[in-house]
Amino acid sequence: MTSERTYHHGDLRRAVLTAALDVISAEGPSALSLRDLARRAGVSHAAPAHHFKDRAGLLTAIAVEGFDLLGTTLAEASDLRGMGLNYVRFAVGHPAHFQVMFRPELLRPDDPDLLAARDRTRSLLRTAVASKSADPDTAFLAAWSMAHGFATLLLTHSLDRTLDGRDPEEAFRAFAEVMFGR
């Protein structure tokens, strides 16, 4: 007697993305393997390729999702300082997305969804800084660098000794005040 096993995963795409985010959070993006993610999701080793084609496709999907989440988070702020704080909050709340979003060597750089998501997110920050400076391009770069640098240092625990137990959000607010005044 032959038994045929058929298995339908409710939302394989989401399951693979979730498993990938877990792996990235624990071990970094270099630890990702579509075969391992398929095993974790309980599907054949070829199943994830139907959604992502390859590792770069999976990481690009994570980056797109990350830029969309970041854009939503930035849009919730009422001013530029709030956007900076929300940027840091996003990085802390979504460290796996954050690790992937800014690593172009891991992604499909010409992916239309990635380009659109990145542009939408950047335009939010550009719009917020445009009225604050005679040189909006430099102001955009300064604001992004400050928030991104702080978030990166925070996630890599490079600020642990410097903060010495201080709340990172309060430290960022103070940092922004020093850099840009009230």
Global mean pLDDT: 89
Give the terminus-to-terminus CA distance.
77 Å
* Helix content class: 55-70%
- Spell out the helices and strands N to C: HHHHHHHHHH
- How would you describe the shape? globular
Could you give me the name of the CATH homologous superfamily of the largest domain?
Answer: Tetracycline Repressor, domain 2
CATH architecture of the largest domain: Orthogonal Bundle
The chain-level structural class is mainly alpha
Unreliable residue runs? 1-7
Largest sheet: none
CATH class wording of the largest domain? Mainly Alpha
Provide structural commentary.
The protein is mainly α. The protein folds into 2 domains: 8-52, Arc Repressor Mutant, subunit A (Orthogonal Bundle); 55-180, Tetracycline Repressor, domain 2. The chain is 69% helix and 0% strand. The chain has helices at 12-27, 34-41, 49-52, 55-75, 80-93, 95-101, 112-130, 136-155, 160-163, 168-180. Residues 1-7 have low confidence and may be disordered.
Q: Quick gist of this model?
A:
The chain is an all-alpha fold and 182 residues long. It is built from 10 helices and no strands.
Annotate the secondary structure layout.
Elements: H1 12-27, H2 34-41, H3 49-52, H4 55-75, H5 80-93, H6 95-101, H7 112-130, H8 136-155, H9 160-163, H10 168-180
Helix pairs in contact: 1-2, 1-6, 4-5, 4-6, 4-7, 5-6, 5-8, 5-10, 7-8
Characteristics:
Arc Repressor Mutant, subunit A; Tetracycline Repressor, domain 2; mainly alpha; 182 residues; disordered N terminus
